[in-house]
Amino acid sequence: MNSVMVADGLTKTFGPHRGVTDLGFEVQRGEVFGFLGPNGAGKSTTIRMFLGLVRPTAGHAVLFGQDVEHAPTSILARVGYLPGELALHPRLTGSQHIEFAARVRGLEDRAMLDQLVERFGVIVDRPVRTLSKGYRQKIGIVLAFMHDPELLVLDEPTSGLDPLMQDEFQRLVREKVAEGKSVFLSSHELDEVQRVVDRVAIIKDGALVVIDTVEGLRRSAPRTIEFRFARDADAERFRELPEVRVVNVEAKRITLVLHGPVAPVLRVALDFEPIDVVARPADLDELFLTYYRPQGAEIGDGAR
Any residues with CB less than 8 A from the CB of 156 and at least 6 apart, and which? Predict the structure, then answer.
């Protein structure tokens, strides 16, 4: 069996309120599967169904070939979980949290645990309430990885981490996948996961928008470019370009969204003496627009 995690028509409603609808995807053994969407899209609800914390209204959440609703609790011993909102007791130290989790899991081999504490520079001897969000997040990483699980379910795992620790976390994920482990990584930022995931599912308003490889998403994702000029620029020159959408015009400053090659934009910009340019990858809102914008419509036309 290559699939370690399967959503089969997975649906959850909360009375009249939307949850998630008819989700269908599989996470393969040895794969990093990204689950992307803005806050409130249904990511955490989906995770809670897989962990048996929320019962589906319809469909099935399957782990290691077993429907979670009817599986023994031992199935979750094979899963490591890092929640998006990590709840730690403010008066307990990092060491006390880790020791308690180790006893509950019956952890005998502490090599992985000790290695993680040292690797991420976890502060274990101070009450959690005295720690920054980044240091609390490091404790969460240890709790998720310390028993060397077959499947890691990670919800916003790098939240609060500095860039160096983000890179270290990505190396850890790649190491686990190389060992044959699987990772389900949920986030609201495309840039956070695109360096490590193999495939990506995008969820919006409780429904799947697309499942694709990272390379496939990159080809379809727009980029935002902001120019600052030495003199006033003619925004109409940019609007005339194919696959360009002008989203903001200020004095000597223009912001646009680009879906195609950058060369035509740069040629126009040179006519207005650019003194600064900032480009950034698409955020999820921009990426969703590529799937949801009506044919021919221009979102943000008011910013002319």
Answer: 84, 186, 187, 188
pLDDT digits (tens, 9 = 90+) for 25-61: 999 999 999 998 877 889 999 999 999 999 999 999 9
**Tokens of residue 77, six digits:** 């011993």
Q: Where are the alpha helices (DSSP H) in 179-262?
A: 190-193, 214-220, 235-239
Sign of CA dihedral 131, 132, 138, 143: positive
Structural domains present in the chain: 3-219 (3.40.50.300), 221-292 (3.30.70)
All residues at 6 or more sequence positions from 29 whose CB lies less than 8 Å from its CB, including other chains:
1, 2, 3, 4, 180, 182
Q: Check: CB of residue 47 under 8 Å from CB of residue 106.
A: no
- 127 DSSP β-pair partners: 93
9-23, 114-128, 187-201, range with the lowest pLDDT: 187-201
Instruction: Give the closest residue to 191 by CA, choosing from 289, 284, 260.
Output: 284
Rounded-to-integer distance, Cα 299 and Cα 294, Å: 9
Identity of the amino acid at 121: G
Inter-helix orientation angle 94-105/133-145, to 10°: 20
Q: Give the Cα separation of 230 and 274 in Å (integer).
A: 6
For residue 302, pLDDT over 80 is answered with no
Distance CA 186, CA 200 (A): 10
163: CB partners within 8 A, 6+ apart: none
